[in-house]
Design brief:
By secondary structure, this protein is mainly α. Helices cover 71% and strands 0% of the residues. It is elongated and about 40 Å long.
């Protein structure tokens, strides 16, 4: 999986972000420990979660 940047995450819909988050999680789970693929998946999850947090209405 390629790294999803914060800029790219901002340009996606919320539904797309949830799908990408699932994909990144699954990639992270199966990637070899210490690999670039695993690091990219982890950073992608962080970027996606940060973007979703900004969009979530505050109570």
């Amino acid at each position: 999986m390629k790294l999803i940047s914060r800029f790219e995450a901002a340009s996606r819909s919320t539904a797309e972000l949830h799908g990408l988050l699932t994909e990144a999680f699954n990639t992270f789970a199966v990637a070899p420990r210490g690999s670039q693929q695993r690091q990219d998946a982890l950073q992608s999850m962080r970027n996606i979660e940060d973007e979703l947090a900004v969009r979530t209405p505050k109570l």
